[in-house]
Amino acid sequence: MDTRKLLEGKKILIVDDEPDVIDSLIELLSSCKIDTASSYDEGKHMLENQHYDMTVLDIMGVNGFELLKIANNQGIPAFMLTANALTEESLEKSINSGAVYFAPKEKMIDIDVLIADVFESLDNKKNPWEKLLERLGGFYDRKFKGQNWREQEDKFLKNHMNKFY
């Protein structure tokens, strides 16, 4: 996969209340056209008034799940990126609410590859959650140790397989 080619020229909205996270994402996604918002209201306005190829949403600081609903209504794929809401419940809510991905901020250094995975999956009419399991499955196995998130994996994939195309 040619990550740079998949991302080149894509218009992405980043909504996060942490300026340093926004700055890092802008740098890491330098081949994309980036708009940013640092609050729920700003993000809502931008999602409702512009078209994006994807949005990257923080969960806690900007009411990301409400922004996810707006993104879904606008047909904009939403990539959930979180630190404080890194729980099995937030992962499941992201899947069930129509997000295309759920990643921890500690893996932000790989955001270009993760987002390229999503674009590649969507372009090939595949479920982007399968790529998440390939890339971050081991991370979540360690994070959610003793929890049943892997037992739910097949159910999640089957229930959401056709949602993206």
Task: Round the Cα radius of gyration to an integer and report it.
Answer: 15 Å
What spatial form do the alpha-carbon principal axes imply?
globular
CATH class: Alpha Beta
Low confidence ranges: none
> Structurally, how many domains make up the residues?
1
Mean pLDDT: 87
Strand order of the largest sheet: 2-1-3-4-5
- Category by helix and strand content: alpha/beta
Instruction: Specify the biggest β-sheet.
Output: 5 strands, parallel
Tell me the span between the first and last alpha carbons. Answer: 21 Å
CATH architectural category: 3-Layer(aba) Sandwich
Approximately what portion of the residues adopt beta-strand conformation?
A: 5-15%
The H/E string reads: HEHEHEHEHEHHH
Tell me the CATH topology.
Rossmann fold
| CATH homologous superfamily heading | Response regulator
